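Sequence of Metallo-beta-lactamase family protein (Shewanella violacea).
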Amino acid sequence: MSTKEKQMNMSQMIGKVRITRIQEMSGAGFPFELMYPKYSLEEINKHRNWMTPNYMTADTDQMFQSQSSWIIETPETTIFVDPGNGNDKVRPGMDRFSNLQTNYLDKIARAGINLEDIDIVLCTHFHSDHFGWCTRLVDGKFVPTFPNAKYLFSQTDFDWCENMDPATEGKIVDGGRRIECEKGMLPGITAATKPAVEDSLLPILESGHLTLIPQEDMKIDNFVTLINAAGHTPGTFRVDVESEGETAIISGDIMHHPIQVFNPDWNSIFCVIPEKAEQARRQLLKDCIEKNALLLPTHFNNPTSCRIKEVAKDSYDIVWDCL
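Predicted 3D structure, token representation.
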């Protein structure tokens, strides 16, 4: 299959709207046992056959994950959602996201998108792997990657990041099997997010490209709506796309892994407000069923897109799609 054909297969039409997936990277992530406090080996074993090898490693029971961004082309607006980790960024405590050199910008170009054509950049939440490509390194300085775009980001998450204290952060111990937290902060998030704010957000704030928005539902145009889904972080949004009776939902980290479709009560260790995170996840699943929506999560590996079906009350299954 040619490069062009592969890239074409990364796009999906939702009525009059084209959504294109840009995959920055993929690979083994956290062990399930560490990622989910409600982890159950029995539950993992129930799904092991279909999860291996695309969604978990066969030998170490690690989550296999992707890092995806989404380009939404409506008849009115071109929108970029969750611009990944970025190159040349130092991320203490998150070595696999630090000092990357990926061909992410080449993938955007192969999708037929010029950086100058992006009208709006959206971020589902302020974890460093979701907004690193807001800037890129040019002549030793981080500048806006999408020079003509308006960046619409959560005021709530921005304030939350500003108040982070890396000194309160926990550590992963026991060979990666347990978290040790003195004051409740989760490992890696604060240490990685603070420099991300400095190299990826402050330059667009200072250049006048960044608009901080309140934590409430907001229409971007006649096809795209930001939906308040606070929980994973205080300022988490999801992005709903609707056109000609069809719906797609870009969910960010409301779910990190397909195992959470079968276990919606499984919050990750990075969910800041656990009760709200679970509520947002259950609402997402119900909305996917009610609208027969194409679900587009950030971290599901290949294939990433899926639809959700209800097999019993509060019990769900996955129907995989093409992206």
